[in-house]
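Co-fold these.
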Amino acid sequence: MNRCPCGTQLSYENCCQPLHDGKAIAQSPAQLMRSRYCAFVKQQSAYIYLTHSPETRHSVSVESINEWNSQCDWCGLQLVTSTNDTLLHQVEFIAWYQQAGKLNYHHELSQFLNEPLDDAFAKHLQEPKDKNNEKVWYYASATYPDRKIALPKRNDECICNSGQKFKKCCG
Ligand SMILES: [Zn+2]
Ligand SMILES: [Zn+2]
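Predicted complex below.
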């Protein structure tokens, strides 16, 4: 079985695909974060766009997402911490990618909001939802921790969660 690129033990079909296809919605900030990373891998730009909070969605476009995505070869996702309580809905993660043959990472602390379903995202869903009662998770904003992340060593476990050594896998 091929595991979902987002780093769970599940297959893509049982993990992020139902979200990308509009058959399910993310139940937590962490699940939304994983599915958004996975959408980069699977080139589901519309999903990345639509899961942006409606208030800040104007700051991105499907084209800009495609543009950035075409320059990166995604290797793996590591969730560092995730908090989902009454005040804070945030996920800190490291997304590894290769660019021009070099391993690099994107380290981000993302903020999420649980908000009423908006029209554009509602259209993406296969089953109509009652917009007045439905709240969904949206990606709201990001900050970038300036802590330096060590690149994996040759004998470390690979950043793609394959369980293999880095040198034998993505290294
Ligand atoms: Zn997944
Ligand atoms: Zn690997």
